[in-house]
């Protein structure tokens, strides 16, 4: 059985288009629900990923909705009309798994969904351009919660203790740490072990030897 998603978008034509692309995918990507409000995704915790439109009626980017989904431990693919680097990088900072523009279409959205549900990185053209223009291209941009969970894991003997500290599930802690690994892999500095992540954090000034 293929992966499952929820679509959060207030344009029916976009929703219908994404549904059709998912239905034609091999294996099929199941759309469990869709709607114009982020609650439709929060009410479907079984979905493997969320496709989120960044412009939900208010005229302003829905950064708050993105943050709510990320805090709930959801894998979020932002699918937006905005093609500027600042918006794309802001979404990564908030914890989005990847960022696509609607102009990039099914040839990127479907592979992005397949990668994201397997916790693998996917960098479509617009996001790749934004990351290339980042003045710190080799230093991943971690969200505040990703940084908190990562540092707490360094200080703890287990992910269970981190989960208890932040009132999260162990699965959610795994999700945050997995996102950090993906961001380092995207930056060309993979860190597949805890020791490697500690080394990266030392290199990037997230921690110091005294803190360890």
TrEMBL record:
The keyword NAD does not apply. GO terms for molecular function: DNA binding. It comes from the Bacteria. Residues 4-117 form the Response regulatory domain. The modification 4-aspartylphosphate is found at residue 53. One of its GO terms (biological process) is regulation of DNA-templated transcription. InterPro entries: CheY-like_superfamily (IPR011006), NreC/VraR/RcsB-like_REC (IPR058245), Sig_transdc_resp-reg_C-effctor (IPR016032), Sig_transdc_resp-reg_receiver (IPR001789), Tscrpt_reg_LuxR_C (IPR000792), WalR-like (IPR039420), WH-like_DNA-bd_sf (IPR036388). The keyword Phosphoprotein applies. Keywords: DNA-binding, Phosphoprotein. PROSITE patterns: RESPONSE_REGULATORY. This is Response regulatory domain-containing protein. It comes from Pseudonocardia halophobica.
């Amino acid at each position: 059985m293929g992966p499952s998603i929820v679509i959060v978008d207030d344009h029916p034509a976009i929703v219908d288009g994404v549904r059709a692309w998912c239905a034609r995918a091999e294996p099929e990507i199941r759309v469990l629900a869709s709607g114009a409000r982020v609650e439709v995704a929060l009410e479907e915790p079984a979905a493997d990923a969320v496709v989120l439109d960044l412009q939900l009626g208010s005229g302003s980017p829905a950064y708050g909705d993105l943050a709510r989904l990320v805090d709930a431990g959801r894998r979020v693919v932002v699918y937006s009309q905005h093609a500027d680097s600042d918006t794309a990088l802001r979404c990564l900072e908030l914890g989005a798994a990847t960022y696509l523009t609607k102009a990039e279409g099914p040839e990127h959205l479907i592979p992005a969904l397949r990668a994201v549900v397997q916790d693998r990185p996917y960098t479509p053209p617009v996001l790749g351009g934004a990351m290339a223009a980042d003045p710190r291209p080799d230093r991943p941009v971690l969200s505040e919660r990703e940084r908190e969970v990562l540092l707490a894991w360094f200080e703890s003997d287990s992910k269970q203790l981190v989960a208890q500290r932040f009132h999260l599930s162990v699965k959610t802690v795994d999700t945050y740490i997995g996102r950090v690994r993906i961001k380092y892999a995207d930056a060309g500095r993979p860190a597949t072990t805890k020791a490697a992540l500690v080394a990266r954090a030392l290199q990037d000034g997230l921690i110091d030897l005294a803190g360890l």
